[in-house]
Amino acid sequence: MSDDDNAKIASLGDWRGALLTRIRRLVRDAVPDVIEEVKWRKPTNPLGVPTWSHHGIICTGESYKDKVKLTFAKGSALTDPSNLFNASLTGVRRALDIREHDELDEAALKALFQEAAALNAAGISR
Predict the structure, then answer these.
(1) pLDDT > 90: percent of the chain
(2) Listing from the earlier edge strand, what are the strands of the sheet with 57-63?
(3) Span 72-125, pLDDT tens digits
(4) What SS3 state is found at 54?
(5) Is the dihedral of CA 9, 98, 51, 106 positive or negative?
(6) Spatial separation of the C-alpha atoms in residues 125 and 92, rounded to whole Å
(7) Residue 93 and residue 76 in contact, taking contact as beta carbons nearer than 8 Å
(8) What gap in Å lies between CA 55 and CA 34, rounded to an integer?
(9) E strands within the chain?
């Protein structure tokens, strides 16, 4: 866990921080050698965006006022048998918008993390 990730998650101080902590645990369980870092710092978001990578970006965890958005860099190439993706459904990326009271299918999400990591490791670009 990086200090930057810890700072970003702690800065939220509400359900979004708790959700990102839970997601972080799921990513680490699914892909034990995942790399965590914060990217895309800017004046309006100085703490940046938590990003999980394994031979390329698996996904990012952006926080908004009403949701946490998990964006999978190569989401269109993932099978998503549980139909978790509910946002950014065109183009290469796919996303999952999670609101405060949404149920989280941990097993399906871990499977997406693993499939995304495997896709990156295989060198498949889409």
Answers:
(1) 67
(2) 35-39, 49-53, 57-63, 68-72, 94-98
(3) 999 999 999 999 999 999 889 999 999 999 999 999 999 999 999 999 999 866
(4) coil
(5) positive
(6) 10
(7) yes
(8) 9
(9) 35-39, 49-53, 57-63, 68-72, 94-98
